Amino acid sequence: MNELITKADDESPIDLVIANAAVMIPDCGRTEDIATVTTEIFSTNVDGVFNTIFPLLSRMQARRAGQIGIVSSTAGLCSEPMNPLYSSSKVAVMSYGEALRWIMRDYNVFVSVIVPAAVDTPMTNVPIIRNMPGHFATPEDMARVIRKGLQRDYMHIAYTAMDYWTCCVMMRDVPAAARDFYFRLLLPLVKKSGNYLIEFHPAPKESHVC
After folding, report:
1. Could you tell me the pTM of the whole model?
2. What is the pLDDT of residues 158-206, one digit of tens each?
3. Which superkingdom (predicted)?
4. DSSP string, 63-75
5. Domains within the chain, CATH numbers bracketed
């Protein structure tokens, strides 16, 4: 990845990079080995973002020009229990993007964190997600929102203000104790509804290998 990106930048300086790397339920998701599942999710969702932007950071600093969009998720507003490993990886990406925004601003490089909700892609085309309440953005609509947000140098770029602020109020902008209490009440209902998107499950007894 480093060689590919630096070669492209040598040929024509890259002025915008959008880092989007994500897996929700990995191939090894039929195992109860939490460490294995965590490693696979973070190696894609976090390291994938790093591998995309790291080759360009020093180059954009030297040029004093450039823009970076880092794709997180509304699930990245806080670690939540419905899909905890995915959301925690997106929390990491969001936090890093916010920190990088302030670092790179001194070099005239602008960083935004993209915070999409559910988007109609193959990744979300599974029954457990399709049965969840709410609407799905089309890729085209999400792309238009991202373009507009990048042009305006938004810190967070969300599909709709209502989605974003609802998630913030419910998940991020409340004390940790209140959030813990809320999720403790919510989780049994989510499990009962079948919309419990935990990333790891006990494997069949004859095999625990991914």
Report:
1. 0.80
2. 876 666 666 666 667 777 787 788 788 877 876 776 656 666 655 544 4
3. Eukaryota
4. HT--EEEEE--GG
5. 2-193 (3.40.50.720)
